[in-house]
Structure formats: C-alpha cells, structure tokens
C-alpha cells in the first residue's frame, strides 16, 4: 500500500440526504428516533387530543367556537346548561378586582399611580434608556411619596381613603413592589453581615436570617396583625397594610440574604485580595468589585425569590387584606352572578393575572443574564 | 521540580538606573512570626529592603515565601514582630493598612483581574476611587501603562478575551497605575504557558531597569540571575540563606540550599 496520496478531483458541496434535513429529518430526530420515542410521541398526541378541545371549549367564547360567555353577556347566558367560562362576570366585576373597595369616584388616583409607575419603571428596566440617575431617584424616592399621598388622600382637597378600602391588583402590586425593592438592600446587608469578621454583626445577621427563614409567612402575618397590637401601648395603632408590608419585606430579605451569600461565596478569594491590594476600602470593593459579580451570578435565584414573593402576597388575605386573590374569592359569592362556572372563572382569571407578572419577571431576568454575560467565568 | 524554568531574555540589561539606596529603607521586617492556626508558618523573619532593591525569594513549596510577601501588604496578618513599610507600621489600623496598600503594588499568580470590567476600567478603578484622580486623567495614565506593557489595542476588551500572558501584563499595569513605590510579585509566571512567560518577564525587567523596588517570589532562576541584587532562600518558614545572585548560585553555603539548587539546576 502506498503512503502517498494526491487528490485529483475536488468534491463539490451537496445537499444533505432528505432523511436528515427539513421536516422529515426533524421528526425523525426528535419524535421517532427510537421505538420508545415513537411510543412517547403517540401517547403525547393522544393526551393533547383528549385534553385540549375540552379546555379550549371551556375558555373560548362563542364566536371562537367555544362555550364561554364573552364580556357583555348576561348572567342567564352563564346559567345556561353547558355554558363555559363566564367572562361576562369577570368584566362586570373588573373594577373590584383592580381597586378593591376603593371609592369609584376616586379611581383616577390609583390609575394615575399605575400610569406613573409604568412610565418610570420601563426606562429603569431598559438599560439603553438615558437619565438613569434621575429616573432612579424619581422612582425610588419621589414616586413612593407621591403614591402614598395620591392613594391615601387627605391633602390638596383629596378625600381620605383609608388602606382598608384599598384592594385588588392595586394592593397585590403595592405589597410585591415594596417587598421586592426594600428586601434587596436589606438582603444584601444581611448577606454581608453574615460574612463579617465582627462577631456581633455576624451573630445578629445569622440570628435574623435563621429566625425569619424558620417561620412560615402565615405565622409572620398573624403575629403582625394579631399579636403586635397586643404589645402596643393603648390607643396607638399601626396600619394593617403597613404591618403586612414590613412582615413580607423582612421575610423576603432573609431568603434573599441566603441567595446573595451563595453568590458571594462563589467568587474566588483572589477577587477580594486584588481589590484589597489596590487599597480599596471594604465598602468600595464590595460596591465595585464583589457585589456586581456576586449578584450577576445569582440573578436566577434572586428572581426566583421575587416570583415566590409575588405569589406569597396572596397570603395577606388571611389577615383580612383584599389583595387580588381575595377580591376574586369575595366576588365569587356575588349572587347577581351566581352560576355553575362563576368560581372557576374567577380563579382562572386570578391565575392568569399572577402568571402574566411572574412570566414577565422570568423572561426579563433571562434577558438580563444574557446581556450581563461578558464571556467568561469569574 | 518541573515548574522551575530558565527562560532567558536575550538582551543586555540597562543597569544605569538600578541603584540601591544606602539610606532609604523601603521595608523593614523585624522578628516577625506568623501562625495559621497551630501551624507556625513564618518564623523569626528579619528582612530589611532598601529602596531600589530587586529581591528574588526562592524555596520549595510550602516554605512560606508567598505568605511572607502577603504579610507586607497585610493580605495576611502577622502575630509577632514588626513590619514597617515606607515608614508606616502595619497594625490593626485599617487606615494605615490602606495607606500602605496604595503604595505597594501586588501581582498575583492567577492575575485576579476583575472579569466584569473592561481592561481600561480595571486600570482606572483604584486611581479614581482611592486616589480621587479625575476620570480623564486616570484613563490617560491607564493608556500610558497599557502601551508600556505593549497591549494598548486591548483596552476596551474584557479580561476573559485575553491570553494569560496579556492578562498578567494588564495586572502589572493595573498596579502601576497607582504609582506604587514597591512592587510585590507572587509567582507571576507560574500559571502561564511557557511561551508567555517571556513577555511577562520582559515587563518585569523593564520595571527593574527603571529602579523600582521589587520583591519577586518566582521559580525563574534566569530572571534572578539577570535582575536580582539579592536572592533569598526560604525553607520551613525561615530565611535559610541570602546572597547576591552570583554567589548564591555558584557558592551556596547552607546544605539545604545546595540540595535545592542541585534539584532545580542542571
């Protein structure tokens, strides 16, 4: 056999065989690669055929081929035999789901709060937007104050609306936004405290974190709304919503502290040493070197905590605060709209609302993670 | 000891600025001891470094050489004895420690660049936030030093996009941006591919030529021969022997030094 070889004719590029490209190739590779895959594919298709049409029929309104009653329908339509979801009921009670018992004449106030919030938060979350510093000051400092006076009233001739009358999506968003925004700095400080060399700070941080993590949120809320007033001096009261806000915030910051600690521990010691050797003080090296990297590593964990927090806000209903889920539940006993599907439709609506916000947070975090990736591991 | 190499730089070293001061003390270590838990890692260290000295510390792994230079900028705390750096004594006073660290640059084995910042941001961060240098001025200084280490074109990349040798040169430039009086090198070439060692050593030699006070923990015996004015040999946390490179390599006195040299030199 000769060891020398010289190519005499070049091979031109050819299209791949039909069986590996296009739709057929994709199906072969992904659906029918092995007998087991084939069986799983058939079972999956059978399940979809069994499950999708009834669900679609229940939630799609008449004009889309389903049995549901579209907004504008009457309660009689919903009571008819075989009727699907009663969307007419949702649209009729929508203002209750959004504002709770807020006086209808004053709806412009929460609306303005929603509008200002959207206007400020979108450019804040969008990295390319200009005036970040002004934007941040407006959102984190000015906006909460404006919101408080707008919603609570009592100034500029606005009627006072006590927090007992706030409700629905408004309260859900207030609790979760305040919880998320306030728990970030507290959580970071607790995580740093837990790593501190000073024994007192470390012990206090550990105690705080372990105490709050070991107690169910329901217990925290009960304590805040029932036990706390017993210890307060006669005549002084702290607003129920405020108590829930503080409870949720501290609860969430304990969890967040542990997530952030994971990020801090994942950083190589060399980063701390390099920062120190350049003469950076503790707080400067934390601010410029350590935290930016640590937080980036734990974005999925942080967002996970926020999603959990957002859903946990529904627990405030047990201390009598009318958040979104509680308004849905309260409305389901509305006899004007009583029908076989009334409650189910309400819960579907609530689930959908929660899902929209949680899904948005999840997608945003994935996008942010990709953006912050500078192509290396720390 | 396969990690020991003898990379030689084929050029004459310009010694015109390499002057060791007779009067100005850069670092003074007197009767220093350090323990890691129960382990007595540094024992009775006495070392006076004059301004302009170029010292190479050699020794087997675990002999305490890295720990010794990490004590000089207080990355490690010593438990007994005194360390005075540029006239400032190292105590628990955080302000003094930061003062010392501003004047003492350190280069690490694993570079330790900040991966989330661009090269230029890596170089300007400390001057801006520690020294209070205006941003434009800090950036001009950064570019000056990047040109000196011959990679100005990498200024706006991230560390992860650079080779090991380039990263180490950036790390040296980062220290130089603080205009340190003393440079500490902790095995700066040990984590590099052989062909990149040379480019880093070149930078270190040019620093020496400018009269920088340097302490290098390194296995580069060629560098020690060419640049150092003093070689220190350590074992078991103690300084066993020190001498000028000529005599250190040709005429080692202590038995342990002879054994060490016979193993690394062929």
Automatic annotation (TrEMBL), chain A:
Listed InterPro entries: AA_ABC_transptr_permease_3TM, ArtM/GltK/GlnP/TcyL/YhdX-like, MetI-like, MetI-like_sf
Domain ABC transmembrane type-1: 169-360
Keyword check for Nucleotide-binding: no
Transmembrane segments: 39-59, 108-129, 136-157, 169-193, 214-232, 344-362
Gene3D superfamilies from the UniProt entry: MetI-like
CDD domains per record: TM_PBP2
Cell location: Cell inner membrane; Cell membrane
Pfam families from the UniProt entry: BPD_transp_1
The entry's keywords: Cell membrane, Membrane, Transmembrane, Transmembrane helix, Transport
Major place of residence: membrane
Topology of the protein relative to the lipid bilayer: Multi-pass membrane protein
NCBIfam families registered for this protein in UniProt: HEQRo_perm_3TM
UniProt similarity note: Belongs to the binding-protein-dependent transport system permease family. HisMQ subfamily.
PANTHER family referenced in this protein's UniProt entry, alphabetically: INNER MEMBRANE AMINO-ACID ABC TRANSPORTER PERMEASE PROTEIN YHDY, MEMBRANE COMPONENT OF AMINO ACID ABC TRANSPORTER
Name assigned to this protein: Amino acid ABC transporter permease
Automatic annotation (TrEMBL), chain B:
Pfam family, one: ABC_tran
InterPro entries per record: AAA+_ATPase, ABC_ATPase_HisP-typ, ABC_transporter-like_ATP-bd, ABC_transporter-like_CS, MetN_ABC_transporter-like, P-loop_NTPase
Keywords: ATP-binding, Nucleotide-binding, Transport
Coiled-coil region(s): none
The UniProt record lists the keyword Nucleotide-binding: yes
GO terms, molecular function: ATP binding
Domain ABC transporter: 27-261
Family: Belongs to the ABC transporter superfamily.
PANTHER family, A to Z: AMINO ACID IMPORT ATP-BINDING PROTEIN, PHOSPHONATES IMPORT ATP-BINDING PROTEIN PHNC
Name of the protein: Arginine ABC transporter ATP-binding protein
Species of the source: Devosia nitrariae
């Amino acid at each position: 056999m000769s060891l020398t070889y010289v190519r005499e004719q070049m091979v031109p590029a050819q299209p791949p065989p039909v069986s590996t490209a296009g739709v057929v190739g994709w199906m072969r590779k992904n659906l029918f690669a092995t007998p087991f895959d084939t069986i799983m594919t058939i079972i999956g298709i059978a399940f979809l055929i069994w499950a999708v049409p009834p669900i679609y029929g229940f939630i799609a309104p008449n004009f889309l081929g389903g049995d549901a009653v579209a907004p504008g329908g009457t309660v009689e339509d919903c009571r008819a035999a075989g009727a699907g979801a009663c969307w007419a009921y949702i649209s009729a009670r929508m203002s209750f789901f959004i504002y709770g018992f807020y006086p209808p004449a004053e709806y412009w106030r929460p609306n303005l709060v929603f509008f200002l919030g959207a206007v400020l938060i979108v450019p804040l979350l969008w990295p390319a937007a200009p005036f970040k510093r002004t934007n941040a000051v407006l959102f984190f400092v000015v906006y909460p104050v404006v919101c408080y006076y707008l919603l609570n009233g009592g100034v500029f001739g606005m009627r006072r609306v006590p927090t007992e009358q706030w409700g629905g999506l408004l309260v859900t968003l207030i609790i979760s936004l305040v919880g998320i925004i306030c728990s970030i700095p507290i959580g970071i400080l607790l995580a740093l405290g837990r790593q501190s060399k000073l024994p007192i700070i470390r012990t206090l941080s550990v105690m705080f974190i372990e105490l709050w993590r070991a107690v169910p949120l329901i217990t925290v809320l009960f304590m805040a709304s029932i036990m706390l007033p017993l210890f307060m001096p006669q005549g002084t009261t702290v607003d129920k919503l405020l108590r829930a806000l503080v409870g949720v915030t501290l609860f969430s910051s304990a969890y967040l502290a542990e997530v952030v600690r994971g990020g801090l521990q994942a950083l190589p010691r060399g980063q701390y040493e390099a920062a120190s050797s350049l003469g950076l003080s503790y707080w400067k090296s934390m601010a410029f070197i350590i935290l930016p990297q640590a937080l980036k590593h734990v974005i999925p964990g942080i967002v996970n905590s926020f999603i959990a927090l957002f859903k946990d806000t529904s627990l405030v209903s047990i201390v009598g605060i009318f958040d979104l889920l509680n308004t849905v539940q309260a409305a389901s006993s509305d006899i004007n709209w009583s029908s076989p599907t009334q409650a189910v439709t309400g819960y579907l609506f609530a689930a959908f609302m929660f899902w929209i916000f949680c899904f948005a947070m999840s997608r945003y975090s994935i996008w942010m993670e990709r953006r912050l990736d500078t192509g290396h591991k720390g | 000891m396969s990690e020991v190499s003898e990379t030689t730089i084929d050029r004459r070293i310009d010694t015109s600025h390499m002057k060791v001061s007779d009067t100005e003390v850069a670092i003074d270590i007197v009767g220093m001891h350090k323990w890691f838990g129960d382990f007595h890692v540094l024992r009775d260290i006495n070392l006076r470094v004059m301004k302009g000295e170029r010292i190479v510390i050699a020794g087997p792994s675990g002999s305490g050489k890295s720990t010794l230079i990490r004590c000089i900028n207080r990355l490690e705390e010593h438990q007994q004895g005194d360390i005075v750096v540029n006239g400032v004594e190292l105590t628990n006073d955080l302000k003094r420690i930061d003062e010392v660290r501003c004047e003492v640059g350190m280069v690490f084995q694993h570079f330790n660049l900040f991966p989330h910042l661009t090269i230029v941001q890596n170089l300007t961060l400390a001057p801006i936030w520690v020294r209070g240098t205006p941003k434009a001025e800090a950036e001009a200084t950064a570019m000056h030093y990047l040109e000196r280490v011959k990679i100005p074109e990498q200024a706006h990349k991230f560390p992860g996009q650079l080779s090991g040798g380039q990263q180490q040169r950036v790390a040296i430039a980062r220290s130089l941006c603080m205009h340190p009086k003393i440079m500490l090198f902790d095995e700066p070439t040990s984590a590099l591919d052989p062909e990149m060692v040379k480019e880093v050593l070149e930078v270190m030699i040019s620093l020496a030529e400018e009269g920088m006070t340097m302490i290098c923990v390194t296995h580069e015996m060629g560098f020690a021969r060419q640049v150092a004015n003093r070689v220190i040999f350590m074992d078991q946390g103690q300084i066993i022997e020190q001498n000028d490179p000529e005599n250190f390599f040709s005429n080692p006195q202590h038995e342990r030094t002879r054994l060490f040299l016979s193993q690394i030199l062929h």
